[in-house]
């Protein structure tokens, strides 16, 4: 029990102080878990990071879950997730409540939306440098962009990712070869891993089917968030178009509410996936926020626990690495499509907006301004200019 409590307190500390997005989170983790506390070796940490990049889901949260698993078993993984996630969940729930009771169409909210435009643009720029290394990757991304823009349907993104995975499986094997890693000792059996992976697939396939038959509001919320969490490759920003398709296109919340919440998510520490807590709070109050948070992170937990016993085998299989590369290329195109519509089309209203977004983007790329500081600047700009 003392070890679990220690895992929770350390992860809670990181959840309160880890600003800057998934890449920055991994830097905090390496400093705290590897250098300071010696809970795992550099090799174990690097392999855990590689695994989180291989699997769909929030990379930094999965690394935290994996460290908790190595340190304290299944319960260690759970308390590590709770500590790292809780601060941002509470902050975004409070923001959703405040927004609902003060009105969403305020000047400072428009400032947040302009910040969101700049941050997504930077995310596309950074992701494309890493995930589009060849002409095949570029063509997959371009195809995904065109399909998602022309086929306006909640299943468009999911279908595109699946098709891109098959393309990558067959055409990107050689491009993604790398040396075999050293094996890491995992405190759970392969049989347990199979159980978790099986449960992941049962929920992935079964939830949409059951949701269409039951027609229950709460079950539908679980299904939408679980599906979004299960099919996000390439980082937390990629959850944006999936959630937009599930909740804005379906009319459950307005585009203004959605973009304001996404902008605010950049101001809080912790994982970007806690954006789901804001959405759940907007559409169904506190119970909705809790269910949304659990549902969107559940796939990541099931995959990390399920895949870790097969760590070496998964990493050696060139075909799976090719499939992941294809999916990663597709999500760049999907995020670019979401950037065009609805982010730009429903946020940029005049020339002043274009100038402000350009300045924000310059601050991010050139001056390396932290996103949470840019959010504060955006709020001030919104109050003054709108």
TrEMBL record:
<feature type="transmembrane region" description="Helical">
    <location>
        <begin position="131"/>
        <end position="149"/>
    </location>
</feature>
<protein>
    <submittedName>
        <fullName>Chromate efflux transporter</fullName>
    </submittedName>
</protein>
<dbReference type="Pfam" id="PF02417">
    <property type="entry name" value="Chromate_transp"/>
</dbReference>
<dbReference type="InterPro" id="IPR014047">
    <property type="entry name" value="Chr_Tranpt_l_chain"/>
</dbReference>
<keyword id="KW-0812">Transmembrane</keyword>
<feature type="transmembrane region" description="Helical">
    <location>
        <begin position="226"/>
        <end position="247"/>
    </location>
</feature>
<feature type="transmembrane region" description="Helical">
    <location>
        <begin position="155"/>
        <end position="172"/>
    </location>
</feature>
<feature type="transmembrane region" description="Helical">
    <location>
        <begin position="289"/>
        <end position="313"/>
    </location>
</feature>
<feature type="transmembrane region" description="Helical">
    <location>
        <begin position="350"/>
        <end position="367"/>
    </location>
</feature>
<comment type="similarity">
    <text>Belongs to the chromate ion transporter (CHR) (TC 2.A.51) family.</text>
</comment>
<feature type="transmembrane region" description="Helical">
    <location>
        <begin position="325"/>
        <end position="344"/>
    </location>
</feature>
<feature type="transmembrane region" description="Helical">
    <location>
        <begin position="193"/>
        <end position="214"/>
    </location>
</feature>
<keyword id="KW-0472">Membrane</keyword>
<feature type="transmembrane region" description="Helical">
    <location>
        <begin position="106"/>
        <end position="124"/>
    </location>
</feature>
<keyword id="KW-1133">Transmembrane helix</keyword>
<keyword id="KW-1003">Cell membrane</keyword>
<feature type="transmembrane region" description="Helical">
    <location>
        <begin position="77"/>
        <end position="100"/>
    </location>
</feature>
<feature type="transmembrane region" description="Helical">
    <location>
        <begin position="259"/>
        <end position="283"/>
    </location>
</feature>
<dbReference type="InterPro" id="IPR003370">
    <property type="entry name" value="Chromate_transpt"/>
</dbReference>
């Amino acid at each position: 029990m003392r070890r679990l409590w220690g895992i929770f307190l350390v992860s809670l500390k990181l959840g309160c102080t880890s600003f800057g997005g998934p890449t920055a989170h991994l830097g905090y983790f390496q400093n705290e878990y590897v250098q300071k506390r010696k809970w795992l070796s550099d090799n174990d940490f690097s392999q855990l990071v590689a695994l989180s990049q291989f699997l769909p889901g929030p990379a930094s949260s999965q690394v935290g879950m994996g460290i908790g698993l190595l340190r304290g078993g299944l319960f260690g993984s759970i308390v590590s997730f709770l500590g790292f996630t809780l601060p941002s969940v509470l902050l975004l729930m409070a923001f959703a409540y405040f927004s609902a009771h003060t009105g969403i169409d305020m000047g400072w909210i428009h400032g947040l939306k302009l910040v969101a435009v700049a941050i997504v643009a930077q995310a596309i720029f950074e992701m494309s440098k890493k995930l589009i290394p060849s002409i095949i990757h570029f063509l997959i991304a371009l195809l995904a962009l065109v399909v998602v823009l022309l086929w306006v349907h909640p299943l468009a993104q999911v279908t595109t990712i699946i098709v891109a995975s098959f393309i990558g499986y067959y055409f990107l094997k050689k491009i993604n070869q790398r040396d075999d890693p050293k094996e890491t000792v995992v405190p759970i059996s392969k049989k347990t891993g199979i159980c978790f992976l099986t449960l992941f697939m049962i929920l992935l396939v079964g939830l949409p089917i059951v949701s269409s038959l039951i027609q229950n509001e709460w079950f539908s919320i679980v299904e939408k968030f679980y599906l979004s969490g299960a099919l996000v490759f390439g980082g937390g920003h990629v959850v944006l178009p999936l959630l937009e398709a599930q909740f804005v296109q379906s009319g459950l919340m307005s585009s203004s509410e959605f973009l304001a919440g996404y902008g605010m998510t950049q101001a809080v520490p912790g994982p970007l996936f806690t954006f789901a807590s804001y959405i759940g709070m907007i559409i169904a109050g506190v119970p909705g926020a809790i269910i949304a948070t659990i549902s969107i992170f559940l796939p990541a937990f099931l995959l990390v626990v399920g895949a870790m016993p097969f760590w070496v085998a998964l990493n050696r299989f060139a075909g799976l690495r090719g499939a992941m590369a294809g999916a990663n290329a597709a999500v760049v195109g999907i995020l670019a499509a979401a950037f065009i519509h609805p982010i730009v089309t429903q946020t940029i209203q005049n020339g002043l907006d274009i100038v402000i977004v350009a300045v924000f983007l310059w601050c991010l790329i050139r001056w390396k301004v932290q996103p949470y500081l840019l959010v504060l600047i955006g709020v001030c700009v919104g109050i003054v200019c709108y």
